[in-house]
Amino acid sequence: MSFTNLSELGRSLVHGSLSDPEVLKGTGREPPIRILPNATVIKVGGQSFIDRGRTAVFPLIDEIVENLGRHQMIIGTGGGSRARHAYSVAVDLGLPTGVMSVLGTFVSMQNARLINYLLAKHGIPFIEPAQFGQLPHYLATRGAVIFFGMPPYTFWQENPALGRIPPHRTDAGAYLVSEVFGCKRMIFVKDEEGLYTADPKKDPSARFIPRISVSELKAMNLPDLAVEHPVLDMMENAASRRSIQIINGLEKGNLTRALNGEPVGTVIYAD
Predict the structure, then answer these.
(1) Domain limits for position 259
(2) Do the domain assignments include residue 32?
(3) What is the pLDDT of residue 2?
């Protein structure tokens, strides 16, 4: 087979080693295209939001509907308390991390189905990973889609450095969608104003942080974060989505303000 028409980089990929640092460096010269640059990924928390039920979820559903036609929305869901219960039973039974990832996936999927049913009359579809190729069509015709936030690693989930709970869960899965598709925003909907120096539910002296870099946040070594730690690691190597926004979805209008690019909640950005 002739490779005479390949570029220098193409020839190095064909003939070289994919473990060669120089070859790998060459693959990063051209930035990836932004496939869905007008879309926003919205991750709705499981324990922090969906588990609150009707009083929290219904107003958010209304606000999502209000923004149909104005913003393209890719809506992901967390697992919440039911996932934690499944993890606790799985740990007690001695099941490995990959199996727990499968369990967490199905709980996240249940929450995605709940949101899907509430938005069904507006024609908003639920999609699974195999359907992500249809995202552009759904966003162009319906303005929004719903997916479960758990990344589809299932049995292939890597073991964490500590313990057995799957390290890449729904925050990481939702963030990766925003990064891979080059979306313009990544919004995490929680039940707090954003990021604090401590859990404000337990510590009344906790200080609100409106804006902070990944490196600054890591240096603070906070015992509890509003997003999963792996998201911060992913942001440091991101090519497209180098910032995220955490908002309080219980406050009416916050989602709309965030979709409009207003500085509501907390913004975490990569240096």
Answers:
(1) 37-269
(2) no
(3) 55
